[in-house]
Design a protein that fits this description.
The protein has two helices and no strands. By secondary structure, it is mainly α. It is elongated and about 70 Å long. The chain starts with a helix and ends in a 21-residue tail after the last helix.
Length: about 70
């Protein structure tokens, strides 16, 4: 590999590293924003007793698919 090609490769790797760092920072910020929004939502629901009983303020339970044992010939 020629010196010029090596230098260009190193420059591109540095740019890629910088972009990956920016992406990681953005992902952390988005996660923090989501956590803050969820915390604010839960706080709003707990302030109003009527809302607390409302299904919209209940935590979402993970969906469990129905057993498909019979459909697989068991």
């Amino acid at each position: 590999m020629k010196a010029a090609e090596w230098a260009e490769d190193q420059h591109r790797r540095a740019e890629l590293d910088d972009l990956m760092a920016q992406l990681a920072d953005r992902e952390v910020q988005m996660e923090d924003d989501l956590i803050a929004a969820r915390d604010e939502y839960e706080l709003d629901c707990s302030r109003d007793p009527k809302l607390e009983a409302d299904l919209a303020c209940q935590p979402v339970r993970p969906h469990r698919p129905a057993s498909r044992g019979r459909s697989r010939g068991r």
